[in-house]
Every structure is written in structure tokens, then in C-alpha cells.
Specification:
The complex is a heterotrimer of chains A (484), B (100) and C (673). Helix content of chain A is 76%, strand content 2%. Chain A has helices at 3-6, 14-32, 39-52, 74-101, 106-124, 128-147, 152-182, 187-194, 202-218, 227-234, 237-262, 267-289, 295-316, 319-346, 361-364, 366-380, 386-400, 404-430, 443-465, 468-483, and strands at residues 61-65, 70-72. In chain A, strands 1-2 form a two-stranded antiparallel ribbon. The mean pLDDT of chain A is 87. Chain B has helices spanning 4-24, 28-53, 57-87. The model of chain B has no long low-confidence stretch (mean pLDDT 89). The N and C termini of chain B lie far apart (53 Å). In chain B, 78% of the residues lie in helices and 0% in strands. By secondary structure, chain C is mainly α. In chain C, 72% of the residues lie in helices and 3% in strands. The chains are: A mainly alpha (484), B mainly alpha (100), C mainly alpha (673). At the A-C interface, helix 7, helix 9, helix 10, helix 12 and helix 16 of A face helix 1, strand 1, helix 5, helix 6 and helix 29 of C.
């Protein structure tokens, strides 16, 4: 093996290296910034991510580089955009959130950036080793981030950590079997080898089940979702936003890469498993969200339900399904980050984000209520918002592929889910608020929140009213996955 | 002469012990140790596959995995300290403020 | 002008957002003006579009305006497109016209409500969704509107949330409508699957109708039946009508706009829009007609004995919707839509009139405490009587022509049973409407002194809409007068491009004028006798001529069992509780007991169990005992309670769930090997 065959191509890693460089820069900068001024790091991080964003589509390489470890195709670029956007949003809203919590710190920001870097590694990994390292980098960053909220944070983080480490072990065990039956860890090589295998190979089945369970944990699918409500509630709200959007999207990216690229030969075997998980997740998430009183927990269960819907796009294993997954991930980033932003802003800051805090929001903060209503409508999947389009594409792909019952279950769960989303609107517009007023915010924080809210709202609407543009990109992005 | 099955059996036994430890032991430190056991069982299986398949990737993977596991346990201990400082708790069943 | 059609829904949307965001800071007058003006401008555009298409030749009146390509997915492309044809034009005229009047009325009626801005915001949003529903050129846009109007209706029924009954009614409407919507969505899916199997994956009306004859009849029957399930929910037909009477907890303008004039007729519109599909599925047509006429009779009988002024109107609405379904079911689409239109006029009028009465009576809705209001509020009283005459089918008012056309077509097409039941129902309708008129406006006032002191005519913003609607209710039927033109009524000619696939009523109308006139005379006679009986029973000056057994109290006594049955609405709510709610409750109870036992064995924690039991019984009180009213919601929330218990907060329980899941997956994978 000579050096040329390794195909070392620094450009395929450039956006990732820039994020890591930004993180290291913030880390060093942290030493020179006095205690009171840590928010400057937040602006540096968020604006840095925004500056990196245009570089992502500039470096697209369809040929795997670094001996097949890395692939910077349009597929990973699409996900990198999702990560950078949601991460920049999350960091923007963190600045004021941490100040109110009284726990401004430098490490918060660079660990956020490391988490983003981990997601990007996952999306562009073309080898199970790289995939695992990226996943661990992301997860470990999140374990720490969850713990950064005073009070509940440590409990949430410890639960997340123990279960997360266990799931990593299970994933790794599955990977070891995949390696065992194919003799390689490279995704493309594995795809070429598994075609020749008999399809009653025990290792293969173990690998499918264990890897499936490991990924299902990351997307919080039933019954591996147990960590998510507690971790979401315990974490600082901006971290929850990133956790529910970015880490989920990253998990879907690797899910699709491994199952659709490496193991398409055994679609018959893994689709049954994912079918059941997807159906159970959708129903479970929508039903259990109903009695929740804490808005973060409600959104956590809603996020579980959405994961079930997105999973449908993987089950069908078609270009339409995969592009729907990509589209959904982007849409979900907009609407969910928006919803968490309003939740962070509307809570009184004493640690509890209760649904009742939203009472009468419409008369106190009409714009805020309007945005929240928009996000709820979109999450509920009501047209003309992006949430509807995303659901529609996933359902349409399932229908095309003949998964009628799964589509019906998705429709039922959506019908149930409308109930708790409508309740949020009901609280905001129908109830009057009694109790303390919201604290007045400085103009500066209003601007940062305002930017995030307007951008997420515009994204939520624009992707619903004019979805074709992004969907075309998504269809092109998944092209490489289904041609190999 | 041990075959791959022997190694895999050992790996499976250690994996099961690790899982059981996470499920049963209340002390967080022992839970962390059980997690380490899970990782190491996987390392055994990876190394065994690597040896019998005559492929280097498995061993490379083991090196990565050991590194990651070391970082993981560091975070675990840090969280343990945080939990102890805020809650004065070292047992996992003392942590159930959040539920439902 | 036709190109500006997108402005019609956009203006109310802008009004809604403006009021929703800035409304709390604006004066009440401004809020009302914004809300009304948005709909008023839409109405003007709708009128101009109407003129425009009337100048076109009949076969060029169906225009599709594509705003842009909405989405492309897997070889299927859907445009954000509006369809302008005679049917949708008539619908937008009704929605914006009646809607505008009701908006104006609301600015007077709701003037004292502190949530006026919210009210207008919802009302405008409702108009937006309703317009999307009727204007869309494909099923997805119709679905958008369909879901949206449901959401707005839910919000508006529960508008006075302080009243627990309003909240419950909102929930009930929501749950029952979800059942219907579910059928509708399944129908859409089935249609879509079938069409993609035929290689014509599209949801545009044009393409679907063009491919309709290729769909196997059984599938088509199923599709149309599933659509009809949606219509049954939305338009409150048997067996899903229970939500509409409860929906009267909402403010009266809402009842007039949503629960009489527009939203509840969406089901009729949907069937009429799909006339191509329905005429290819005769079996469905029969089901629609039978359920329709059954509902008409059923609701009319309940209406005979109700004492709440709005409940009478609510059951009357259910009954009239039944007529419309009977009409579209037998293929008389023009007649059905004609009745939809006249019903919007006279029922909107009567609801607004009843609102005016309630306003004057300081919120009293019980007719037994009213009486003699004619002397105090002449405009309300006269307009209300015009509405009542219209619905009772007295010529030449609007209701006569439309109802008579339905009856005539039923008779003419050989559905004599439907004709007979319809005639009977018409008599009952005349009776209960005039019972209401006599109880409310004539005789001595039975209110207490304080209320009596308060009675006054409503302000101009309320009476002007009443007068306009009264004029429409009087003359609105003229477009449907038979005999004038050789080839059917003006309305038939108008609708010919849309319904030409459906019924061939145009030719049939030639059959025999003599018979038609005879039947008209019969139905007028039935209507007049209904009114006369009501007069003999409830109108004081006529009472002295009445035979003894016609005294209301006497009658209630002699027919006590029937009266009780009707008064309690056939015990339908109780029946649903008994048949559906309670069994589900019991089932959940068993599940819970079982679960408790099993979990107890697995998890070692008696203390936890005790705490848990206390928690469950606490939750049981909150969710079950209180939530009894509401079957499906209770079912779901109960399930969620059971499932939610997995989330104990204990790390090791989580790990256990995780490992059980893992074992199931690995086991399943290995077994399937």
C-alpha cells in the first residue's frame, strides 16, 4: 500500500478541521477572558460556525479519502449543514440562558463545538472505526454538557452517561460481529463482501440486532428511549435543543450509511426489526407525551415520536425514503430548535419549564406566542408548515415501497400527537396568566433570541411552502448511497 | 488449541457479567467498573476476530476502543464527583428526582 | 381578476396574524375593523371573480390557477393551485359573504369580551382554512383546510374556557372529529395507493377524476365510504353527530359561522366535489342518502322537545345537513349544494337572531324563561320569523325552493322512501321552528324582573347583518326556481360544468311539471300544518281554538315515555358512555392491575409500589373520574399513564428496560434466522 492509494485529501476534512480549530481557539481564548466576559466566547463560537457554513458545500469529494476512512460526499455535506446550523442556533440562545442560570463558563462553548465536530465525523465516516470515534466524541461532549446545569443536571447526566456507555458497548459488540463476518470495517468493502455471504450467518444477525440497538439508543427509539426524557429535562435547554436535533440527525446519518450502504443485501432482515421499532416508537412517543406537565419532557416525548417517523424513511430503504430522512432532519432542526428557544425564553428561570408557564403568553408576548404556535403546528404536521411536508415525504416513500400498515400507524400517531401540540397553543392563547411577570430582557438578548426565532420560523415556513428546492438537494445528496 | 469460539464465549461471558453488574449493583463506582467490563469483553472479541481473520483492522479498533473507554471512565468519575457534591449520593437508586 | 384568487385566502390570514400579534394592544374597534375588512375585501374579490367566470362560456368556467410547484416526490408533483369553477366560486361567495356579515355582527356581540382580539384572530384564521378547503385544486390543499378548520373550531368552541362545559365540549368535538378525520386520511391514502398502482400517482382533482373509471369498483366504494366517514365527523351525521349540539357552548357567532353556515357543510362540499367518484360508487351513494335522511329525521325528533334556544337550532342544523347528504347521496348534487347555500343564509340568520335574543336576555338561553320579546326587539323578531318561514319551507322564501328540489328529485329518481321521510321531517321542522318562535317572541315574558328590565334591541352592528341575511333568506332561493328555463333551473345551468358527470337531473326535470307542482303543494301543506300545530300549542291567541290534547303539558304527560326519550336525546351520550367509554375504562383497569402485579415481581421495591399506588389513584381521580366524558382522550391518556410508568426515574429500571429491549431484538433476530 503506497501513500497515493491512501488518497490523503485534506480538503475532504476541511470543514471538520475548521470546527475543531475553532473549538481549540475558543479553548485557548477561555484562559484570557475574565470570568464576567465569557459570553464573548459564545459569540465567537456561534459566528465562527456561521462562517464555516459556506465552506461545507465547497469541499465535496465523492471518492473516499484517507484509506477509505472519510467520505465528504453531498450526503455528509447535507448533514454537516444541519449540524452547523442547529449548533449555531443552540450556542446563540445559550448566551443569555447561561447568564440567567448564573453559570457562564468557557468550557460550555468549546464542548458544544467538540460535540458538533463529533457529529460531523459521524456524518462523513466511511469506516466503522471512524464512525465509532465520532459517536463517542459527540456522546462524551453531551454527557458533560448535560451536567452543566446546576441542580438537575448531574442526575440527568449520570443516567445518560451510564445508559449511553452501555449502548456504546452494545454498538461496539455489534460492530465486532460485523467485522467478524466481513473481515473489514470499511463500509464499502463490507457492502461488497456481504453479498457473497449466506444469509443465515449468526454473526450477521447478531451484528444487525446489536448495531440496530446501539443506533436506536442514539435516536431515542422505543424501548431504548428511556434516557432521553430525563437527560433532556436535566440538561440546559439549549443543550437539549442540540441533543434532540443534532445528535439525532447524526445518528440517522450513520444509521442510513451503515444499513443502506453496508448492509443493503440484508434489507429483508433488518427492515422487519426497524419496522417494529419505528411503529412502537411513534405510538409510544405520542401517547406518553400527553400527560406531561413539563414542556421539556413533552418535547422529549414528541422528539421520540418524530424519531419513529424518521425511522420509516430508513425502513423503506429507497432513494425517496432516504431523501425524506435528510429533509426531515433539516426541518426538524428548524422547528424543534425554535420550540426549545421559546421554552427557554418563556420559563421563569427557576429551573422548571412548566407548561403552565405558557399561560397567557399570547397577551404578554404576542410574537413569542405566535412563533411557538407556528412551531407547534409544524411539529404536529399540519400544512402548510414544513413539518407537514417532512411527514408527507416520509409517508409517501413508505406508501411507494408498500409499507401501508406502517404508514397507517404513522397517521394514527400523528392524529394522537395533535392533541398535546394543540394544548400548548391552547395554554398560550386561551388561558390568562396569574403570577409573576416575565423578567424584562435587555435589548441585546432580545436581538440574539430574535435572530434565532425569526430564522427558525422562516425556515419552518419556507420549507413548507416551497419544499422543492431543498428536497431536490436531498435527493441528489442520497444519490451516492444508492448507486454503489 | 483455543478456537475463535472459545474467545467469543469468554467475551460473551464477560459482556453478560458487565450488563448484569450495571443492572444489579447500586454503587456508581461498581457500575462504572461493570461498564469497563463490557468494553473489554468487546475488545477481546475484536482482537480474536483480528487474529483469526489475519486482518489488522480489529487490533486498530481495539486501540481506539481502549482510548475511548479511558476517556469515558474519566467522564464517569467526574460525573460521580459532581453527583456526590450536589446530592451526597453514591448509589444510583438515590437519583430519581426526574421521572414520568 | 381570476389571477388574484390567492388574495382571497391571504387577506383573512393576514388579518388573523395581525390581530393575533398586535391585537392585544389595539382598541376593540380597530380589532373588529381589521377582522371584518379582511373578510370583506375577500368577498369583493370573490364577487368580481364570480362576474368574470359568468362572462365565460359554460365549458371554460373551470380554471386552475397554479401559484407554484408545491412539492415533487417520487414521480408525483403537486402544485399549490386553486381551482375556480362554479362550485368553488359559490362556496367562496358563501364563506366570505356570510363570514363578513358574521364578523360585523361579532364586533357588536363580543364587544364586552376582553379576548375580542383572540376571537377575531381565530375567526379570520378559520375563514382562511375554510377558503383553502373549498378553493384547493387537489386533495392535499383540501386536507390542509380540513385539518385547519377543525383546529379553529376546537379553539373557538372552548373560547370561554372558564366554563368547564365549554372546555369539555371543545375536547369532545376534537376527539369525535379526529375519528372522522382518520377515515378521511385513510381514504386519501387508499386513493393514492390505488392511483399509484394504476400509474397515475396524483392528488389533483383533475387527474384523479380522469382516472376514476379505472379504479376497481370495490376499491372505489371503499375510498368513497372512507371519505364519507370524514364527512360524517365534520358534518355531524349519525353516529358522530354528538359533538355538534355540545359545540353550542361556543360564542353564538361561532355557532352561526362554523357550526351552521360553513364548516359543517364541508362534508357536503367534499361529496359534491367528488361527484365523479361518488357517481361511480352507487352503493356508497345509497349509504350516504340513508344516513343523511336518517339523521334528518332523527335530529328533527330530538329538536321537537328541546328548550335551549341554541340546542334547537343545533339539532335543526344536524337535520338540515342530513337533507343535504340525502340529496348528494341520490346524485342530486345541485339540489344539495343549493340547500347548502340557502341553509347558510337562513340558519346563519337564525343563529345570529338567537344571539341577539341571548344578548338581550343577559345570557339566558332557556326558552321557557323567554316570551313576548317581539315587543322589545322588532328587528330581531321579524328577521327571525323570516328565517323560520324559510326553513319551514313556505314559498317564496329560500328554504322552500331548495328543500323542495331535494324532495322532488328524491321522488323523481324513485327514492320514494326518502321523499316520504323528508316530507315528515319537513313537517317536524316547521313545528319545532315555530314552537321556538312562539315561545320566544310571543306571549308574556317569563323572565325575572331584573332580566326583563334589561331587554333591548341590539346595536346596529348586529341588526344590519340580520337584515341583510333576512333579505338573502327571502330571495336567495330565486336562483333555483324551476319552470322558468327550458333546461332546468338557473342553478342547474350554473353547475352543469361541475356536475355533468354526476346526475342527469337536467333532463329529468322535464318529466312532468304537473306532478312537480302537486308535490310542491303537498310539502307546503305539510309545512303549514306543522306551523299550525305549533301555533295551536304555543301561540296564546290560537290556543283557545286548540283541542284539549294539544296543550303542551298534557301532551308531554300522555306521551311521557316518548317525550323522555326525545328530551334525553335518545340517551345517545349515555349509550356511548356505556358501550365505549366504560369498557375501555375497565380494560385499562385490568391492564393496570396486571401490570402492577408483574412489575411488582420484577422490581424489588414495596415502598415504590405504595407510593406508586397512591400516585395512580391520585391520577385516577384526575384523569379518569374527571375525564369520563371523553372516551378516546381518556383511553389515550390512560394508556400513556400506564406506559409512562416505565419512566420510574431509577437508572437501573431504565437499564432493565434497555436490556429487555435488547434481548427481544437479539432474540427476534436469531429466531428469524
Amino acid at each position: 500500500m503506497n501513500l497515493a492509494s491512501l488518497n490523503i485529501n485534506i480538503y475532504s476534512l476541511l470543514p471538520l478541521l475548521m470546527v475543531v480549530g475553532l473549538a481549540l481557539f475558543v479553548l485557548v481564548l477561555d484562559f484570557f477572558i475574565p470570568r464576567g466576559g465569557k459570553r464573548a466566547l459564545g459569540y465567537v463560537s456561534a459566528l465562527g460556525l456561521v462562517c464555516i457554513l459556506p465552506f461545507v458545500p465547497m469541499f465535496i469529494e465523492t471518492v473516499p479519502s484517507y484509506a477509505g476512512f472519510v467520505i465528504a460526499d453531498t450526503y455528509s455535506a447535507f448533514f454537516n449543514v444541519v449540524f452547523l446550523v442547529s449548533s449555531a442556533f443552540a450556542i446563540f440562545i445559550s448566551i443569555d440562558y447561561l447568564r440567567r442560570l448564573g453559570s457562564e463558563s468557557g468550557e460550555y462553548y468549546y464542548i458544544m463545538l467538540f460535540a458538533t465536530a463529533g457529529m460531523m465525523i459521524m456524518a462523513s465516516a466511511n469506516d466503522l472505526i471512524g464512525l465509532y470515534v465520532g459517536l463517542e466524541l459527540m456522546s462524551m461532549s453531551f454527557y458533560i454538557l448535560v451536567a452543566l446545569r446546576p441542580g438537575k443536571g448531574a442526575e440527568g447526566a449520570l443516567k445518560y452517561f451510564v445508559l449511553g456507555a452501555m449502548s456504546s458497548g452494545i454498538l461496539l459488540y455489534g460492530i465486532s460481529f460485523a467485522y467478524g463476518f466481513s473481515g473489514t470495517t470499511n463500509v464499502n468493502e463490507m457492502a461488497a463482501i456481504v453479498y457473497r455471504l449466506p444469509d443465515n450467518n449468526t454473526y450477521l444477525y447478531l451484528a444487525l440486532a446489536l448495531i440496530g440497538a446501539g443506533f436506536a439508543f442514539k435516536i431515542a427509539a422505543f424501548p431504548f428511549h428511556v434516557w432521553s426524557p430525563d437527560a433532556y429535562e436535566g440538561a440546559p435547554t439549549p443543550v437539549t435543543a442540540l441533543l434532540s436535533v443534532g445528535s439525532k440527525a447524526a445518528a440517522f446519518a450513520v444509521f442510513l450509511r451503515v444499513f443502506a450502504v453496508a448492509l443493503p443485501a440484508f434489507h429483508g432482515q433488518w427492515s422487519d426489526m426497524l419496522w417494529v421499532i419505528s411503529a412502537a416508537t411513534m405510538i409510544f412517543g405520542s401517547v406518553v407525551a400527553i400527560p406531561q406537565k413539563n414542556i421539556i419532557r413533552m418535547l422529549a416525548y414528541s422528539s421520540i415520536a418524530h424519531a419513529g417517523v424518521i425511522l420509516m424513511g430508513i425502513v423503506v430503504n429507497s432513494s425517496a425514503g432516504a431523501s425524506a430522512v435528510l429533509y426531515y432532519s433539516l426541518v426538524y432542526a428548524f422547528m424543534n430548535v425554535g420550540a426549545f428557544t421559546v421554552a427557554a425564553l418563556a420559563s421563569r428561570g427557576d429551573g422548571g419549564e412548566q407548561l403552565t408557564d405558557l399561560r397567557g403568553l399570547a397577551s404578554r408576548r404576542p410574537w413569542l406566542a405566535f412563533f411557538m404556535a407556528l412551531f407547534m403546528v409544524s411539529l404536529a404536521g399540519i400544512p402548510p408548515t414544513a413539518g407537514f411536508m417532512a411527514k408527507f415525504f416520509v409517508l409517501a416513500s413508505a406508501v411507494h415501497a408498500g409499507y401501508y400498515w406502517l404508514a397507517v400507524i404513522a397517521v394514527i400517531s400523528t392524529a394522537i400527537a395533535l392533541f398535546f401540540y394543540a394544548r400548548v397553543i391552547f395554554y398560550m392563547y386561551m388561558r390568562d396568566y396569574e403570577g409573576a411577570e416575565l423578567p424584562e430582557r435587555s435589548l441585546f438578548t432580545c436581538v440574539t433570541y430574535g435572530v434565532v426565532l425569526i430564522l427558525t420560523a422562516v425556515g419552518t415556513l419556507a420549507l413548507g411552502v416551497y419544499p422543492s428546492a431543498i428536497l431536490d438537494i436531498a435527493v441528489r445528496a442520497v444519490g451516492p448511497l444508492f448507486t454503489i | 488449541m483455543p478456537t475463535i469460539t472459545h474467545y467469543l464465549a469468554l467475551s460473551l461471558i464477560l459482556f453478560t457479567i458487565g450488563l448484569a453488574g450495571v443492572l444489579i449493583r447500586r454503587n456508581i463506582i461498581i457500575v462504572l467498573m461493570s461498564l469497563e467490563l463490557i468494553f473489554n469483553s468487546v475488545n477481546i472479541s475484536l482482537a480474536a476476530f483480528s487474529y483469526f481473520l489475519q486482518s489488522i483492522n480489529g487490533v486498530v479498533f481495539v486501540i481506539f476502543s481502549i482510548t475511548v473507554a479511558a476517556a469515558e471512565v474519566a467522564i464517569g468519575l467526574a460525573l460521580l464527583v459532581t453527583v456526590y457534591r450536589t446530592r451526597r449520593a453514591v448509589n444510583v437508586d438515590e437519583l430519581n428526582e426526574m421521572k414520568g | 381578476m381570476v389571477e388574484l384568487v390567492w388574495l382571497i385566502p391571504l387577506l383573512p390570514l393576514i388579518g388573523s396574524v395581525a390581530n393575533g400579534v398586535f391585537g392585544s394592544r389595539l382598541s376593540k374597534g380597530t380589532v373588529g375593523v381589521i377582522g371584518s375588512a379582511a373578510v370583506g375585501l375577500s368577498f369583493l374579490i370573490a364577487v368580481s371573480i364570480f362576474w368574470r367566470i359568468m362572462t365565460l362560456p359554460a365549458d371554460a368556467r373551470s380554471i386552475e390557477i397554479v401559484a407554484y410547484n408545491w412539492l415533487t416526490s417520487g414521480g408525483m408533483s403537486i402544485d399549490a393551485a386553486f381551482l375556480i369553477d362554479p362550485l368553488s366560486t359559490l362556496m367562496i361567495l358563501i364563506v366570505t359573504g356570510v363570514g363578513f356579515l358574521i364578523h360585523v355582527y361579532s364586533s357588536g356581540y363580543m364587544h364586552h369580551d376582553k379576548g375580542l382580539w383572540r376571537f377575531f384572530s381565530y375567526l379570520n384564521l378559520f375563514i382562511f382554512f375554510m377558503l383553502m378547503l373549498v378553493l384547493g385544486a387537489n386533495y392535499l390543499i383540501m386536507f390542509l383546510g380540513w385539518e385547519g378548520v377543525g383546529l379553529c373550531s376546537y379553539l373557538l368552541i372552548g373560547f370561554w374556557y372558564e366554563k368547564k362545559s365549554a372546555g369539555d365540549a371543545g375536547k369532545k368535538a376534537f376527539v369525535v372529529n379526529r375519528i372522522g378525520d382518520f377515515g378521511f386520511i385513510l381514504g386519501l391514502f387508499l386513493l393514492f395507493w390505488t392511483l399509484s398502482d394504476l400509474g397515475a400517482a396524483s392528488l389533483n382533482y383533475k387527474d384523479v377524476f380522469a382516472a376514476a373509471h379505472q379504479i376497481p369498483p370495490v376499491t372505489l366504494t371503499l375510498i368513497t365510504l372512507l371519505f364519507f366517514v370524514g364527512a360524517v365527523g365534520k358534518s355531524a351525521q349519525i353516529p358522530l353527530f354528538v359533538w355538534l349540539p355540545d359545540a353550542m357552548e361556543g360564542p353564538t357567532p361561532v355557532s352561526a359561522l362554523i357550526h351552521a353556515a360553513t364548516m359543517v357543510t364541508a362534508g357536503v362540499y367534499m361529496v359534491a366535489r367528488n361527484n365523479v367518484l361518488y357517481s361511480l360508487a352507487p352503493y356508497t351513494g345509497e349509504v350516504v342518502a340513508i344516513i343523511g335522511i336518517g339523521t334528518a329525521l332523527f335530529a328533527a325528533t330530538i329538536g321537537l322537545v328541546q328548550n335551549d334556544i341554541k340546542k334547537v337550532l343545533a339539532y335543526s342544523t344536524v337535520s338540515q345537513l342530513g337533507y343535504m347528504f340525502a340529496a348528494v347521496g341520490i346524485g342530486a348534487y345541485t339540489a344539495g349544494v343549493f340547500h347548502l347555500m340557502t341553509h347558510a343564509f337562513f340558519k346563519g340568520l337564525m343563529f345570529l337572531g338567537s344571539g341577539s335574543v341571548i344578548h338581550a336576555m343577559s345570557g339566558e338561553q332557556d326558552m321557557r324563561k323567554m316570551g313576548g320579546l317581539h315587543g322589545h326587539m322588532k328587528i330581531t323578531s321579524i328577521t327571525f320569523i323570516i328565517g323560520a318561514l324559510a326553513i319551514a319551507g313556505i314559498p317564496p322564501l329560500a328554504g322552500f325552493w331548495s328543500k323542495d328540489e331535494i324532495l322532488w328529485e328524491a321522488f323523481e329518481k324513485g327514492h320514494v322512501g326518502i321523499w316520504a321521510v323528508g316530507l315528515l321531517t319537513a313537517g317536524m321542522t316547521a313545528f319545532y321552528m315555530f314552537r321556538q318562535v312562539f315561545m320566544t317572541f310571543t306571549g308574556k315574558c317569563r323572565a325575572d324582573e331584573h332580566t326583563k328590565h334589561h331587554i333591548h334591541e341590539s346595536p346596529g352592528s348586529m341588526t344590519v347583518p340580520l337584515i341583510v341575511l333576512a333579505v338573502l333568506a327571502a330571495i336567495g332561493g330565486l336562483v333555483g326556481i324551476p319552470f322558468i328555463f327550458a333546461d332546468g333551473t338557473a342553478l342547474h345551468q350554473y353547475f352543469a360544468p361541475v356536475f355533468s358527470h354526476g346526475a342527469h337531473a337536467v333532463v329529468a326535470a322535464e318529466a312532468g311539471h304537473g306532478l312537480e307542482i302537486l308535490l310542491m303543494a303537498v310539502s307546503v301543506a305539510v309545512g303549514v300544518s306543522g306551523i299550525s300545530i305549533a301555533a295551536l300549542m304555543y301561540y296564546a291567541p290560537a290556543r283557545k281554538y286548540a283541542p284539549d290534547f294539544l296543550a303542551p303539558e298534557k301532551m308531554a304527560e300522555t306521551l311521557a315515555p316518548a317525550h323522555r326519550l326525545l328530551y334525553n336525546k335518545y340517551y345517545i351520550d349515555e349509550l356511548y358512555d356505556y358501550l365505549i367509554v366504560n369498557p375501555i375504562k375497565r380494560l385499562c383497569r385490568y391492564c393496570l392491575d396486571f401490570d402492577l402485579g408483574v412489575i411488582d415481581g420484577i422490581v424489588n421495591g414495596a415502598g415504590w409500589l405504595t407510593r406508586f399506588t397512591a400516585w395512580v389513584s391520585h391520577k385516577f381521580d384526575i384523569y379518569i373520574v374527571d375525564g369520563l366524558v371523553n372516551s378516546a382522550a381518556t383511553f389515550v391518556s390512560f394508556n400513556s399513564l400506564v406506559w409512562r410508568r416505565m419512566q420510574t426515574g431509577y437508572l437501573q429500571h431504565y437499564a432493565l428496560i434497555f436490556v429487555i429491549g435488547l434481548i427481544l431484538i437479539v432474540g427476534g433476530a436469531l429466531l428469524s434466522r
